[in-house]
TrEMBL record:
Endoplasmic reticulum keyword on record: no
Subcellular compartments: Cell membrane
Entries under PANTHER family matching the protein: MAJOR FACILITATOR SUPERFAMILY (PTHR23502), MAJOR FACILITATOR SUPERFAMILY (MFS) PROFILE DOMAIN-CONTAINING PROTEIN (PTHR23502:SF186)
InterPro entries: MFS, MFS_dom, MFS_trans_sf
Protein name: MFS general substrate transporter
Family: Belongs to the major facilitator superfamily. DHA1 family. Polyamines/proton antiporter (TC 2.A.1.2.16) subfamily.
GO cellular component, one term: plasma membrane
Transmembrane segments: 26-51, 63-82, 94-112, 119-141
Protein keywords: Cell membrane, Membrane, Transmembrane, Transmembrane helix, Transport
Membrane protein topology class: Multi-pass membrane protein
SUPFAM superfamilies: MFS general substrate transporter (SSF103473)
Pfam families hit by this protein: MFS_1
Species: Tuber magnatum (white Piedmont truffle)
GO molecular function ontology, one term from the record: transmembrane transporter activity
């Protein structure tokens, strides 16, 4: 994979997110905010189903609560991969596949026939959901700030 430095064709280049129309920036921010909301609520949205999952799979409360733990663990580890990847390959190159995989692993959660497959799907749903929070700030920064970001911002 070739790595290249993104440059613009002058200060008015329409491909530069800072030059996008206000409406487009607003739409992108709405999409990022809705996605962040969805993946954040995704960590706890299984809480009401814990008793049903316990009955369906014949497991203890402790094992059933691992559905939350696995998702949050994946959500915490995903940025270690996706934040640097978004700097190297671009934001959209990270967003598109991870959002698709997030949806597919959530579908896998619904289709799981045992607790092991459910927990694995929750883990990977968490990993792929992390781009919303890990890369979203970088996208907002790309659209609205004209100065270079501090070194700790990816």
């Amino acid at each position: 994979v070739d790595i290249f430095l993104v440059t613009w064709d002058g200060p008015d280049d329409p491909a530069n997110p800072q030059n996008w129309a206000t409406g487009k920036k607003f739409l992108v921010m709405i999409i990022l905010c809705v996605n962040t909301f969805c993946v954040t609520i995704g960590s706890a949205d299984v809480s009401p189903a814990i008793n049903r999952v316990k009955l369906q799979y014949g497991i203890s409360t402790e094992v059933a609560t691992l559905m939350l733990t696995f998702y949050v663990f994946g959500w915490a580890t995903g940025p270690l991969i996706f934040s640097p990847a978004s700097e190297i390959f671009g934001r959209n190159s990270v967003y598109r596949p991870t959002w698709a995989l997030f949806v597919l692993f959530n579908l896998g959660c619904g289709l799981s026939s045992n607790i092991t497959s459910l927990l694995i799907c929750r883990l990977f749903a968490g990993v792929f959901s992390s781009t919303a929070t890990a890369v979203g700030f970088g996208s907002a920064y790309d659209m609205f700030h004209r100065t270079p970001p501090p070194p700790f911002v990816s």
